Amino acid sequence: MVRNKLAAGLKKIYPAGRILTGTLEKKMYSYDSSFYARFRDFIPDAVVLPRSTAEVSATMKLASEHGIPVVPRGAGSGETCGCLAVRGGIVLDFSSWDDVEEVDPENMQVFARPGVVHYQLNEHLADFGLFFPPDPGSTRMCTIGGMVANNSSGLRAVKYGTTEQYVLGLEVVLPDGRIIETGGVNCRALKNVSGLNLTKLFVGSEGILGVITMVRLRVWPRPKARGLAMAVFTDLEAAPAAVLDVYQSGILPSGIEILDSSAIHAVNLYNPAINLPEAEAILIFEVDGNPAGVTWEGEKIVEITKKRASRVEWSTEPGRMAELWRGRSVVAVAAARLRPDGSRIFAGEDISVPLSKVTEALRRIKELGRQHEITVVNYGHIGDGNIHTAPVINLDNPEEVARANALVDAIHRLAIELGGSTTGEHGVGAVRNQYAADEHGRAADIMKQIKETLDPENIMNPGKLLPPGEAGKSV
Amino acid sequence: MSEELAGLKEHYMRCVRCGQCRSVCPVFREIRNETVSPRGKIFLAHLLSSGEAKVNNEAASLLSQCLLCRACSVECPSAIPVHEIVTAARSLAAKKLPSPLKSLLHRKIWSSPARLNFSVSLFRHCQGLLKPAATLNLLPPALSLPGRLPRRPARPSIPGQTPASGKAKMRVGYFLGCSTNYLFPGIARSTVAVLARLGCEVVLPQELKCCGLPQLAAGEDKTAAHMASANLEAFRRLNVKVVVSDCASCTATLKESFPQNGSNGIKVLDLSELLAVLTEGNELKFKTINRVVTYHDPCHLANAQSITAAPRNLLRRICTEFREMPGAAECCGGGGSFVLHHYGTGMAILNKKILNLKKTGAETVATSCPNCIMQLRHGLLKHGSGTEVVSVVQLLAESLEITF
Fold first, then answer.
1. What interface predicted TM-score (ipTM) does this complex get?
2. What class, spelled out in words, does domain B155-279 have in CATH?
3. Are the Cβ atoms of A119 and B20 closer than 8 angstroms?
């Protein structure tokens, strides 16, 4: 009954080509990049492709009238089931709403619709000598809407921070269909402290409070120069120590990445031509800015890291930088090469720990791997304590899958124990919400209250982010 | 589990569904929803092979939304051969949902040169009869793609053996593909004449069949395999060790269907590879062609064979000016029969290509695949553009002042 009403209602809002109801079509919306989704069947009742705020608003009114869940989706490149219809309902696929509405170079900002792909936004901004600094590894596919909803960051967060620092305002459709503008109505100011900061409330809210239909982003002048330093360590503990040395010398690189011994080995198996030196750890420092500053900082990094590293190399030459970067760029998939029947899984892949605990975290993750008899590869954004762990398993072996799940749980709990977080940049979704109460204590109750106020029917991306057990309805 | 897909399991299990393939898929870029994404097709293939989903019309329709351009296979960080997975899934679909008409076309007509000749000739006659209907736009628009077919295919005008001018440096087998033969006989004549001028003895077996790509793309893999072994045998009988073709789709297919090494192997070269070798340090006089030229990368050359520099180098050498086209390596939207089934999508992809082409201001666009030539000509015609589309080898024939 509700399904029939849903179909009829959607037909009034969308032209036929932008409603997908085929059995297999809907099934293709049951995955993102997460391990969790591989073993579940989160199939929506309908998929629509909105291209206007009015369409989204009408969809929300229809959904709230019938108590139907609504799930916004960007590129589906996430690792947390954040864009999956875990309780059925309507998926809003924003892939086709990808207009950069306006670049306002005078005011250093850009207005983009949710489906704009990250690298396309930066290509657009390059014409104006501008850029949007957060740089997720998924730049080729991830959308701005998804980045804002998950407060994404990535490789350059050390210097440039995360997406939230760039969001000046949002257009949001609330669960009841109302449309609001956060950050000030028609506001183009860069600074604005009036009112409660609703922009920050929606950034990183993973679609549980409303649907983002427009993003106003602050953008920065594009740096003129860039350089990379690679430092090789025969002792794992020396690597985080070298990171602190660099910070203490007054240098703030744009990114600092680590590959541990298992990651180095995997990269060399994946492509022997990359030929990374087999070592306990490799650090890659990225520096950007004006040419003189980049050279000075690069040389300083070499001088400092030499004290602990067995080998250091610095380059500002694009070809060589690409070579130095290759190992880091392939490691996420290279991990699978550690065993012939192996698949890299995205689970427990994003913990964040205090800088002072990075060494301990890396060591204990390896121990946990041994205990659970699962091969793990560690790499990530060591500059801000964000470690990407890649368990490599045989997906066809249920017993191994069960062990992997136990390992992942242990990694998440380790992060909390060390005073960190279960997720530094990928988000909570439906895969880490069981830790929300432990991570946030009483603050989790306030999150629930905010959710209940804005979405009393619990139709907005239910089953995500908040501790499990919140009231939920399903179609 | 289906046999076709079982062998590819290790590949599709590696897909972490990161979605990077979305960034390069020409079909996805037009339609922009998950159902046409390459990772979606891997997912679908997985469902079909495990029996979780049944092969039905919906599955076949989703599988048809692929140009087999291989952009995703090249882009995939996990190096998953998506095109092989799609082809295998189509093969499964062709078995479970047999289409008598398609089977007749691929198994009985296309696999037999005599029947194909007859059918093409019949089609040509129909083109004449149906001209009034075509003028009134009463026919499916895809039928206008090949333009008016030439009166005669290339084959009758090419001898079984063409001697090299001067001392023969090598003996090559010429694989005359269907598109070159029926649509662009001039390209075939240029290929043979240029190869002979550059010191090749050119052998054209009488009994060649199609390369098998249309059959593979339609899921008729067994038919394609029969055709490949017949072609291989035809070249072996003539003691040919190197086979060359002016069609990138043919060479990409033959490289994968002919054993390339060993005593029984036959080395397949795309014409652009062979021309690069033959023109290197050649003392022949190349006349400079007074024309601004640009180049379109056929997917079956750039993505399937990683050949991008050779044709450009040649064009730089023989033309007054070469201008690189933005997005030169992006598909033109033809994809063999893709554009027949999905004419609107094919034209939207083509439109982007034509706009990029126009940006160069080039008078001539050269490429290395007759199927791309057909598609580009169609697009330029629709845009009312006078830009000429030719095969690289035709420009080389002009530069060598070969007249026919």
1. 0.94
2. alpha beta
3. no
